[in-house]
Amino acid sequence: MTALAEAKNKEVDTSIREALQGALSRGALPGEREGLDQAALAAAAGFLGRTANGRRSGEAAIAIETLGEGATGRFMRLAIVNDDMPF
Question: H/E element holding 15?
């Protein structure tokens, strides 16, 4: 398993980030997109893409990012990427 303390190891290709952004948007459950604008969705897709970029073949990659209180309060992101699919 690859556990990434810092998921900012590489920049994500625009086409991959956009594909992830679309998948996150389409796969959201009712209410999950509440308060999540396009910029926040793009940032989440970038975080997931950077985690995928750092994954070694045949291993899972896990990244956690916490963001302190701001205009929208605290939140945490968790990315898990394995051979089958990203979560």
Answer: helix 14-26
Q: Which helix (H) or strand (E) is 2 found in, with range? A: strand 2-4
Residues 47, 87 contacting (CB under 8 angstroms): no
Residue pair 35/27 in contact by the 8 Å Cβ criterion = no
Q: Give the Cα separation of 7 and 65 in Å (integer).
A: 8
pTM of the model: 0.75
Strand 61-67 to strand 75-81: parallel, antiparallel, or no bridges (unpaired)?
antiparallel
At 51 the three-state DSSP class reads helix
| Extended strands (E) in 32-82 | 61-67, 75-81
Largest separation between any pair of C-alpha atoms in the chain? 39
Q: Give the pLDDT band of residue 5 (cuts 50, 70, 90).
A: very low
Q: Read off the DSSP letter of residue 80.
A: E
State both tokens at 18. 């956009």
